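does this look right to u?? zinc ion version
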Amino acid sequence: MSYLEMLTDSITKETKLTKEAPLNSFNSFNSYSDTLADAASEAVTGMNQYITPEGLLAKLVPCDIAELEACTDPLPFLRSFAIACVWTDFRRQGIAPPTWGKPATCDKCGPVYLWAPIKVAGCPWCWNRLHNLRIPRPPADEVVL
Ligand SMILES: [Zn+2]
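got this back:
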């Protein structure tokens, strides 16, 4: 199963996230090249309920946009960036992203779900801990010590 299939499957079954407003909107969608706009539209395929092409491009900083406008195939970057944006939204809402299903242990957070059953000094859930946001926890019998 591809990342996109896993993401789409997980989103459909487990979550009711809402679209996040773009961080900045100084560029209207029509100001991007057709290549970049088309790539952004394709990059959010399967994630349309969580991020729009306009929202994806609005999260880029101007120097990223300039490089992507000059790129012959911006889709791989935009697809990865779209997944990262949606997964960040998941994490901020206390929901483990689709491939973070392995019980792990963070020195700061304790038992958490990550992408591998590992022990780490710090983890992405540390951000949630520091902001008093929810952290999903694995069952006690699955904890990595
Ligand atoms: Zn942590």
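The first strand starts at residue 102 and ends at 106. idk if thats expected tbh
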